[in-house]
Design goal:
The structure is a single chain. With about 525 residues, this protein is of the alpha/beta class. Strands 2-1-5-4-3 form a 5-stranded antiparallel β-sheet, sandwiched between helices. It has 21 helices and 14 strands. The longest helix is centred in the N-terminal third of the chain and has 51 residues, at about 1-50. The protein is rod-shaped.
């Protein structure tokens, strides 16, 4: 009886277990189906996310083979997903450095992510598109873990082409701004220097035939870009003529840069003209823009151009011919657009004959010659000049009511003015300073006041005008003979008490300049050749 009961209980328990197993099976299949739906939804959402992402995304396994690629990566790289999946990603898009050199797989940060198990971020490399063109990128390579084991990496990358282009444009703009800043600083310093520089006059004053001819020449040449050579004695206003040509031309919006060639040491000529880079020579602590580059688009005024050393004239000629310069210490060639106006008190044709000035440079400069007229050859302009200088000197010295008398005018017109307009201005300024009660006190070298003849030549009866007209060569010969006679009378002494300058009644610097122009050598010693024998 007991055995029958036990058997029945065992059968019931077995049947109950079978029913429970069937229930678990039914519930398990549904649960797995629910889980399958969840995973399908997750996969669909992941695909939507990968498809919507603007960055390129692809995965690699532990062997470096591509496992998946999102649409953005296909679009950026030009490869289809089926062309990339299963292939070595590094060999496909990451095989070469930006400069074209081989990128070894062992150095690849993407593969290093799953080899080392750490995230790698890179912001300055390139991926190579299917068409062979490089694409600058920044990317992040993140390792993928499965139960603590690294099985691959996910790479998220971004096309940096526009950003690189923007950076390059910004660098170029900053470089240009820096150059403009340096140029403006130099121009400002130069203009400040020009403001402080004394000029003979601010406008062309006079109505003599010589002045009218100069004005006509300015009107003709100013609208062009032709090089101009202004020839004339010191103090005749050569720089004024240059300013007038520049201001009347198409380059007037840019400054006229002046270079006094007589004031530049020989070893600094090239740096002054063409500039230098930092470290080019001892003392070159920073880059410096030369005068040609500073005058780019404008005018360069080469004052006393005859003083340029012969060995540097060839470099100047090259710039005038080609419009190209090279800073000292720099191999880069720069192009400049400069109009050149040169001035000299030398006879450059004679300098060419003597081998002291290059003939080809002379021809290049002398495209349009302008002769600056000395004041002694236009005495009718002296009254107008004197009145203007009295006004200026009165303003600067804060003296009012000063007037020129007819006697003052006669005195001024009776002087020979070897120092030309500059000397006239200095005499007027000194007379204004010494004035008292509105009357000028004129003091002229070798001249007398109270109506006495101011110049020995004026004490002689005037010859007929036809006999007094000299050609330029005759005038130069007369001046040469006069200076030689003075030197002979003073035993060769030029300066100081009893010197030739005092005898002739002109400043020593003026006499020295004339001697240089006329090729008269200064006596160096007692044994020097007598001036009268030259």
């Amino acid at each position: 009886m007991i055995c029958a009961v036990l058997q029945d209980l065992r059968a019931r328990r077995r049947q109950h277990a079978l029913h429970e197993a069937e229930d678990y099976m039914r519930k398990g299949i549904g649960g797995w189906r629910d889980v399958e739906h969840v995973f399908r939804d997750l996969e669909r959402e992941n695909r939507l996310i990968l498809g919507a992402a603007g960055e390129g995304i692809y995965g690699v396994n532990a062997e470096g083979m591509t496992t998946f690629v999102n649409p953005a990566a296909e679009r950026l790289l030009g490869w289809r997903a089926d062309e990339m999946v299963g292939r070595n990603m590094h060999e496909l898009v990451h095989h070469t450095h930006p400069d074209g050199t081989h990128y070894h797989e062992d150095d690849c940060p993407i593969y290093a992510a799953f080899r080392e198990g750490v995230v790698h971020r890179v912001d300055d490399e390139v991926f190579w598109r299917k068409d062979g063109t490089p694409m600058p990128v920044e990317y992040t390579s993140t390792p993928i873990l499965d139960r603590g084991v690294v099985v691959g990496a996910v790479v998220v990358f971004r096309d940096m082409t526009r950003r690189k282009e923007a950076e390059e444009q910004l660098h170029a703009a900053l470089h240009e701004v820096n150059q403009l800043r340096q140029r403006l600083e130099l121009e400002n310093a130069y203009l400040q220097e020009e403001i402080r520089t004394e000029r003979a006059f601010d406008g062309i004053i006079g109505n003599s035939p010589g002045v009218r001819k100069i004005v006509q020449q300015i009107e003709l040449v100013a609208p062009t870009d032709a090089n101009v050579l202004i020839i004339g004695e010191s103090g005749t206003g050569k720089e004024l003529i240059a300013h007038a040509i520049h201001n009347a031309g198409s380059r007037c919006e840019r400054p006229m840069i002046r270079v006094n060639c007589a004031a530049i040491p020989g070893d600094l000529f090239e740096s002054e003209f063409f500039g230098h880079v930092r470290g080019a020579f001892t003392g070159a602590l920073r880059d410096r823009i030369g005068r040609f580059e500073l005058a780019d688009g404008g005018t360069l005024f080469l004052d006393e151009v005859g003083e340029i050393p012969l060995e540097l004239q060839g470099k100047l000629l090259r710039v005038l011919q080609d419009g190209q310069i090279e800073r000292i210490g720099e191999e880069r060639t720069r192009h400049v657009d400069v109009r050149v106006i040169a001035a000299t008190n030398r006879d450059l044709e004679e300098e060419v004959r003597r081998g002291r000035f290059r003939q080809d440079l002379y021809f290049r400069l002398n495209v349009f010659p302008v002769q600056s007229v000395p004041l002694r050859e236009r005495p009718d302009d002296i009254p107008a000049l004197a009145v203007e200088f009295v006004k200026r000197a009165s303003r600067s010295s804060k003296k009012a009511g000063i007037r020129l008398t007819q006697g003052d005018i006669q005195t001024l017109m009776g002087y020979d003015w070897p120092g030309n307009v500059r000397e006239l201005e200095n005499v007027i300024e000194r007379a204004v300073i010494l004035s008292h009660g509105g009357r000028l006190r004129l003091e002229l070298p070798s001249s007398s006041q109270a109506g006495q003849p101011p110049c020995p030549s004026r004490s002689q009866p005037e010859e007929p005008k036809e006999d007094r007209v000299l050609t330029e060569s005759q005038r130069r010969q007369r001046d040469r003979e006069n200076i030689l006679a003075a030197l002979e009378a003073c035993a060769g002494k030029v300066f100081g008490k009893g010197g030739a300058a005092e005898l002739m009644g002109i400043p020593p610097t003026t006499l020295s300049s004339r001697m240089k122009t006329l090729g008269i050598c200064k006596p160096r010693s007692a044994g020097c050749e007598h001036p009268g024998q030259r």
